[in-house]
């Protein structure tokens, strides 16, 4: 007779499947020119919202995409545009990094792609494939990642758009690769 060691229950954090309506909308949007659409929506999102309209406009945006406004650091009237609200900070303590040996995502999101870097190919995002060299804008720097693993995390409009790290550190270099130049 063997004894069973109880396992700690792991909460189900699987994202909800979008509704049929949203899947149809996404299907139609996939047929549009993604780069132009992204730029147009970005321009629209930067338009300042008059203070008396903020609760209505930003609240409607939050409801449309499923944002939990109770997690935001500030009240909804404090955000000056949809983009300002989109990149909001969270209230302290809303996201806590696990204190155990666990793999955790640095962002809210859904894993869109993952796998092994082979032949320099690694990322599929917004319907496009990219090489490590294009991502880093430096083919020789990309070579050191050959055989490594990649994960592409999709942030939908409802997701919190900030990145967290499990330890202190400094960003010593940032690159803006050719893959971002549409």
What distinguishing features does this structure have?
182 residues; alpha+beta; two-stranded antiparallel ribbon; 4 strands
Structure commentary:
The chain contains six helices and four strands; from the N terminus they run ααααβββααβ. The chain has helices at residues 20-29, 34-45, 54-65, 82-86, 132-136, 139-142; strands spanning 110-116, 121-125, 128-131, 149-154. With 182 residues, it is α+β, with helices and mostly antiparallel strands. The protein has a two-stranded antiparallel sheet with strand order 1-4. Strands 2-3 form a two-stranded antiparallel ribbon. Strand 2 and strand 3 form a beta hairpin. Helices cover 26% and strands 12% of the residues. It is globular. The chain has two domains: 20-86, no CATH class; 110-180, no CATH class.
Outline of the structure:
The protein has 182 residues and is α+β, with helices and mostly antiparallel strands. It is built from six helices and four strands; from the N terminus they run ααααβββααβ.
Cα radius of gyration in angstroms: 20 Å
Structural class given helices, strands, pairing? Answer: alpha+beta
Number of domains: 2
Q: What is the straight-line distance between the termini?
A: 64 Å
Mean pLDDT: 79
Number of strands: 4
Taken from the alpha-carbon principal axes, the silhouette is globular
Biggest sheet: strand arrangement? 1-4
Number of continuous helical runs:
6
Order of helices and strands: HHHHEEEHHE
Q: Could you estimate the helical fraction of the residues in percent?
A: 25-40%
Largest sheet: 2 strands, antiparallel
As a percent range, the share of strand residues is 5-15%
The unreliable regions are 1-7
């Amino acid at each position: 007779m063997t004894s069973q060691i109880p396992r700690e229950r792991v909460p189900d954090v699987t994202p909800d499947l979008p509704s049929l309506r949203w899947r149809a909308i996404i299907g139609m949007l996939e047929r549009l020119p993604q780069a132009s659409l992204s730029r147009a929506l970005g321009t629209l999102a930067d338009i300042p919202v008059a203070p008396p309209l903020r609760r209505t406009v930003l609240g409607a945006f939050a409801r449309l995409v499923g944002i939990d406004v109770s997690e935001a650091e500030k009240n909804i009237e404090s955000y000056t545009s949809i983009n300002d609200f989109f990149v909001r900070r969270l209230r302290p303590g809303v996201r806590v990094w696990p204190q155990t040996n666990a793999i955790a995502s640095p962002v809210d999101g859904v894993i869109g792609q993952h796998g092994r870097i082979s032949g320099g190919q690694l990322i599929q995002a917004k319907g496009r494939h990219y090489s490590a060299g294009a991502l880093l804008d430096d083919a020789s720097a990309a070579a050191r990642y050959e055989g490594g693993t990649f994960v592409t995390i999709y942030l939908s409009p409802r997701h919190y758009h900030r990145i967290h790290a499990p330890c202190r550190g400094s960003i010593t270099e940032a690159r803006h690769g050719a893959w971002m130049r549409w």
